[in-house]
Design a protein that fits this description.
This protein has 557 residues and is an alpha+beta fold. The protein folds into two domains: 324 residues, no CATH class; 110 residues, no CATH class. The chain is built from 22 helices and ten strands. The strands form three sheets. Strands 5, 6, 7, 8, 9 and 10 form a six-stranded antiparallel sheet that branches. The protein is elongated, with a radius of gyration of 27 Å. The two termini are 51 Å apart.
Length: 557
């Protein structure tokens, strides 16, 4: 539940988020990054679909030289869906992508504020936690250097996962609803972040049944929260997950792992503390795995000081059970995700099904960054209680302010771009329908099985030994168009063939007319063989349930 002053908090964090990306917002275009213009292109593909009345696109003809791609179905869709809706409203994909960054940063910041508040931290710590997430090094790596906006959207949901997780651990009524909804959003935001979110989920429910001492007990409210969580997750994602299982064998997804050998992606522990190999502001290539030295080094030093002070302190260091379980929760998650950063975890990636799709371990900094920030704020407050003196409390508060200022300065400097920039004109040219169809949004990803190369570009519809008398909509005969319903009236000869130059897929239903049939070419495209005479041939978009039904019928027959 948001505080009464939530509009003010939103405004403060939105302004901070604008400061964190202000130079990029004012830039004519977008800086060079690992993704190029693909995230603009993906949003535009969704916007075109929505403009055509398809608000849940599963297939697009604007990929692979116009032969189409199931990337709207397989690829992380939350970001593209939400930002395409904004693009539809403001009539600009370019600006919708730009403003998405401060909006997402604000979402993450409010989540951090709320999590710190539910941890019973002081207002200064709540604000610091929010600002540190906005200006953390890895936050900039994610959206600015890598251009990984889908992962970034999931990243900004992790504070909310922690927020509702802590509520579940404490046995708060109906907190399973929030946890279930956030986890469902993670499923659509980024499948691998969702996959690894199961680790904190397991810890959350284990701690919810823990008595805080030495045994696990049955707690009615924890059981209710677990059932609510599982029920929401089932309702929200089960149908989509079933569709993935059924449709995945038709397309080559192996490229997602063969291009990245996870055993070669590990890096040094010290790189996470201070990464000196990357020159911020001067290159769009490479990357930095530094979380933020103001965060990590300060946390380590704070831990050392606490260890020294606890040996000297004669005060009662006991904390209430709620705070103790929260601290245990954050420590356990830190141990888990730190372990997964190093070669000791290689066996996990090799043996656990699906784990290697992560591609590189430091992607899990999406979890570690907010966790370590919260630990830092909590430990500084704890350190202030070890010596119950005003001077000690003021020192800890001043230290936290200095850490925040350090990260803000870093964030401002990181935006001082001295390398290549894609101009607004270049971006908007890339979003032209004809250029989209020829773009390399996904290169060789999501191609039909056994197809190794994309065929040369051809019109959407071609005919052999037959004449098209009418087409609805007529535009499909001259340019690529999002497929809702295409009706062709043809004068068919005995050897007539209609080449529908889309890869065969379960999201398009073909009605070949009375007595007609369909076949698949060597290039995995669709061929319609109408019966002789005047025939009506239709190509219809299929929704998710229809596609599932088609696949189930294929298995049966």
């Amino acid at each position: 539940m948001l505080p009464k002053k939530s509009p003010l908090i939103f405004a403060i964090y939105f302004l901070a988020a604008c400061l964190a990306c202000g130079n990029i917002l004012l830039l004519d275009g977008w800086p060079l990054n690992h993704e190029g213009l693909s995230f603009f292109e993906r949003v535009e593909v969704f916007r075109i679909a929505m403009q055509a009345g398809d608000f849940f696109p599963l297939w697009t003809p604007f990929a692979h030289n116009g032969y189409g791609s199931p990337f709207p179905f397989f690829y992380h869709r939350l970001y593209s869906t939400v930002i395409a809706l904004i693009a539809l409203l403001i009539n600009s994909t370019y600006w919708s992508v730009k403003i998405s960054i401060p909006l997402l940063l604000t979402c993450g910041a409010i989540g951090m504020h709320q999590t710190a508040k539910v941890m019973q931290l002081r207002p200064l710590s709540c604000i610091a936690a929010a600002l540190l997430l906005i200006f953390a090094n890895y936050t900039f790596t994610d959206w600015l250097i890598r251009g990984a906006v889908a992962e970034f959207s999931a990243f900004m949901l992790i504070p909310w996962l922690l927020y509702y997780g802590i509520k579940v651990i404490r046995g708060e009524p109906l907190s399973g609803i929030g946890l279930g909804l956030v986890t469902s959003l993670l499923f659509f935001a980024h499948s691998m972040i969702f996959y690894y979110a199961m680790l904190p989920i397991i810890v959350i429910f284990a701690l919810s049944f823990w008595d805080g001492q030495n045994k696990f007990i049955f707690l009615k409210q924890s059981a209710i929260n677990l059932l609510i969580f599982l029920g929401l997750l089932f309702v929200n994602i089960s149908i989509y997950a079933l569709a993935i299982i059924l449709i995945k064998p038709e397309f080559n997804l192996d490229v997602l792992t063969t291009n990245f050998d996870i055993s070669k992606q590990f890096t040094s522990f010290f790189d996470y503390l201070v990464y000196i190999k990357f020159d911020w502001g001067h290159t769009g290539g490479g990357y930095s795995v530094e979380i933020g030295r103001g965060i990590t080094i300060s946390l380590i030093l704070t831990g050392i000081v606490i260890k020294i002070l606890t040996k000297k302190s004669k005060s009662n260091l006991q904390t209430n059970q709620a705070k103790h379980k929260t601290w245990i929760f954050l420590i356990l998650l830190t141990i888990i995700f730190v372990h997964l950063q190093f070669p000791l975890a290689l066996l996990f990636y090799q043996l656990v099904p699906g784990a290697a799709y992560l591609q590189f371990p430091w992607r899990l900094l999406t979890f570690l960054t907010p966790i370590l920030i919260l630990l830092l704020c909590e430990r500084l407050e704890f350190m202030a209680t070890l010596e119950n003196k005003l001077l000690t409390r003021q020192f800890c508060q001043l230290l936290l302010v200095c850490i925040v200022v350090h990260q803000i300065i870093f964030g401002i400097n990181a935006q001082n771009i001295q390398y290549e920039v894609f101009s607004q004109k270049t971006i908007e040219l890339a979003l032209d329908k004809n250029n989209l169809a020829k773009s390399l949004i996904f290169g060789g990803e999501y191609l039909p099985q056994d197809l190794t190369a994309v065929p040369e570009i051809k019109p959407l519809i071609q005919t052999d030994n037959c004449q098209i008398l009418d087409a609805d909509p007529a535009i499909v005969l001259t340019e690529a168009s999002h497929i809702q319903k295409i009706s062709l009236t043809v004068q068919s000869n005995p050897s007539c063939q209609i080449y529908f130059n889309q890869f065969d897929n379960p999201f398009i239903k073909i009605i070949p007319g009375e007595g007609g049939s369909t076949s698949i070419s060597e290039q995995k495209t669709i061929i319609v063989n109408p019966a002789p005479g005047v025939q009506k041939v239709e190509f219809l978009r299929q929704g998710l349930l229809q596609a599932i039904g088609t696949k189930i019928l294929d298995f049966r027959f």
